[in-house]
Amino acid sequence: MSAGCVRWLLSHAGRTLCIGRPGYWTPASRLTICSERHNIVAASWRRSPFSTAIDDTEQTPTPKKKKQDPRAHASISSVGRKIPQREIQVISETGENLGIMHRADVIRVMDEKSLKLVLLSEHKEPPVYRLMSGKQIHEEQLKLREKNKTKAAPVQMKELAFSAGIASHDLTTKLKQVETWLDKKQHVRITLRAGHANTGVNLGDALEQMVEQMDVTVGFVSRPKVIRDGQAAMCILRPPSAKELSQIEKNKAAESQTASSSSEAHQSKTAPESSTDTTAGM
How many angstroms separate the CA atoms of 260 and 183, rounded? Predict the structure, then answer.
């Protein structure tokens, strides 16, 4: 047998073993085998735990809605002619409810009366708007500004501590400092400590007497009381409220009227006595 025949037989046997069945190695069979191998590899890659491929059927999480700041529409301003909603509820410039109107009709009314549109509530269905003049918007802005100013701000607390044996001059200086803090609408915590030579003094009464020496009217957040097992006394002062000041003025007026009535009664009693004494002398 020739060498060429031997090579052909070996080649034919090798191809038969590789594809598992008798036949010839054709380009079509080679393409089929490659396609099958590619499908197997692709399937195994998708099933691999280390695969980073994203499954098309996986649902992306819906983004969380941000909480809306309730102060978002705390200001008063015109929305102009760009009304995002098709139909809105409209309040007239006089406060009359005009009902639900189409935005084209609202714009027509704005042009006819030279008014502006202000959003009142976008959370209702449909949203509520009001027609306002420029002067009305300005007045509402001023009211809102004043309202924001009068909101309770954090109160500053000042602290002052001294001994019961403090000198009179030093006490006057410290009380003047307290008056300055109260004028600035601040609260003041005063602590009176027991001195070595004042062991028998009632610190609560002593502190109250010191507060009474002040030239201004004060209010109490906490009245003088003994703390630390009798070793100190403490009180918290605040500026007086308008109601307290009004009551103090009423009390002063009542006391003045009572004193004036007592003086007149005393004069009326002494007048007959003097006339009697004059008659007796005659």
Answer: 33
| Nearest by Cα to 191 from 254, 147, 237 | 237
d(CA 181, CA 197): 30
Model confidence pLDDT, tens digit, residues 82-123: 888 989 999 999 889 999 999 899 999 999 999 999 998 888
Describe the chain by its helix, strand, coil percentages, rounded to 5. Answer: 45, 20, 35
Task: Dump pLDDT digits (tens) for 33-77.
Answer: 445 555 544 454 454 444 444 444 445 555 554 444 444 445 678
pTM for the full predicted model: 0.42
β partners of residue 99: 90
Nearest-5° angle of CA 88, CA 94, CA 95?
A: 55
Dihedral, 194, 197, 199, 205 alpha carbons, nearest 10: -60
**What CA–CA distance (Å, rounded) separates 234 from 226?**
7
In which element (H, E) is residue 14 found? helix 3-19
Q: Is the dihedral of CA 212, 214, 215, 220 positive or negative?
A: negative
What is the biggest distance separating any 2 CA atoms in the chain, rounded to whole angstroms?
Answer: 190
Structure tokens at 259: 């004193």
Residue closest to 178 by CA, chosen among 224, 147, 211: 211
